[in-house]
Amino acid sequence: MHWSLLSVASLLWIALHVVADDDWKKNVPFVGNHTCPGSAWVSNPTGFRFSSAQNAQTHIDRTFIDGFNMPYVFHPHDMLTEGQTLFVEGKVEKFCHDFSVNFMAATPLVLSAFTDGGVPLHVTINFDRSYLIIDSVKDGRWMNRGPHKFANPFVKGEKFDIRVHMFKDYNEIVVNGRKVFDSKHFLPLDVVDFISVVGDVELTSIRVEGHRFPVPYKKRLPANRFGLNDRLILIARSIGGNFNVNFLNEKEDITLFFNVNFDRKTVTRNSLINGRWGTEETEGGFPFEANVEFTLEIAYKAHGLLLIVNHREFATFFHRANTPSTDYTFIELTENIQAFMLEVCN
Predict the structure, then answer these.
(1) What is the DSSP letter of 81?
(2) Which residue intervals define the domain Galectin in the entry (predicted)?
(3) Whether 177 contacts 162, CB under 8 Å
(4) Which of 257, 315, 246 lies closest to 286, judged by CA?
(5) Based on the domain organization, do 261 and 161 belong to the same domain?
(6) Tens digit of each residue's pLDDT (9 = 90 or more) over 252-286
(7) Which of 59, 146, 181, 306 sits in a 20 to 30 Å window from 126, CA-based?
(8) CATH, residue 245
């Protein structure tokens, strides 16, 4: 039995009410689809699509079904597909014994052997025994892949970040930027109706976004420009070596050259305009780790580009282009980088 939080009798009582009345579904919120506080341009395989709002709760509440305070339950906006990522962020309660993240089909409830529906993915983190359970329910039975011992990356009373990267044949589980486990698909992603988070945690953000990013990757920025107070957010990781994140203009000049070099442990900023390299900038340290995910934010300010790595200000790259309001036209990612999310906040 994977559940220690609710008795089987209670779960069956809830299940009877859920089966009898589908009105509760109207109260199930959607997961977010981007991180921006207002409108956003979200990367898709052909470029960027506009999203006017997050379509998610600002303050995330637990779900009530027939007056019963359920775990966090959400609908995905569309069918889950290969290339997307589920991002779950929150805080572990100080008294937490375990909590789980679940992909659910046909029901929002995990009912062990009594499950009516399927559980394409069930991830439980157990603090008392320091193990991770990765499992699925197919045809009414658990696949019993068993507990996996691990060095617990979660700390009671501290923030956490769980990501589920969806690949063709498996889900990759990442905790606080580091890969933990690959989970084979026993059910297809497109059957997932609900996403639930169960246990003594407080959620601050949950969203599904991203797609398969071919590398090298080069796309025109929304509206052909990157303007004042716009902010680009990239979540990615290095895979096997050095990489670049560049801005280019219409003439293919590199108006921002951002090079991460693991051999020299340097982050070099520069520009290549009219065939001439500018002065290299390498101050700021080296906040990257090989095969560990990072968040890079580039914020357009009047004097230059503010570079933020893992939510900490890293450096400012002063504008070198003649007309910076129109000279940041393309975003380019080079080899040795695996991107999971790219968006522009307006």
Answers:
(1) -
(2) 72-209, 218-343
(3) no
(4) 315
(5) no
(6) 999 999 999 999 999 999 999 999 999 999 999 99
(7) 59
(8) 2.60.120.200
**CA 273: distance to chain centroid?**
35
Per-residue pLDDT reduced to its tens digit, 181-201: 899 999 999 999 999 998 899
Same domain, 74 and 122: yes
CA Rg value for the chain: 22
Kindly state the helix (H) or strand (E) to which residue 117 belongs, with its residue range. none
Q: Are residues 158 and 258 in the same domain?
A: no
Number of residues assigned to the chain: 346
Helix, strand or coil, per DSSP, at residue 248: strand
Closest Cα partner for 104 from 198, 33, 13? 198
How many domains does the chain contain in total? 2
* pLDDT at residue 92 tops 50: yes
Start-end of H helices in 178-308: none
Q: Name which of 173, 170, 169 is nearest 148 in CA terms.
A: 173
Within 10 A of 229 (CB to CB), how many other CB atoms are there?
10
List the strands of the sheet with 312-318, edge to edge: 47-51, 40-44, 337-345, 231-238, 293-300, 304-309, 312-318
Query: 42 is written with which tokens?
Result: 């979200």
Backbone angles phi, psi at 45, to 5 degrees: -60, -25
> Same domain for 68 and 196?
yes
Q: How far apart are CA 240 and CA 246, in angstroms?
A: 19
Sequence-distant (≥ 6) Cβ neighbours of residue 9 within 8 angstroms: none
The torsion angles phi and psi of 19, rounded to 5 degrees, stand at -65, -35
Query: What are the tokens at 79?
Result: 């069918």
Tokens at 158, concatenated: 């501290």
User: Left, alpha or beta for 47 (phi > 0: left; psi -120 to 50: alpha)?
Assistant: left
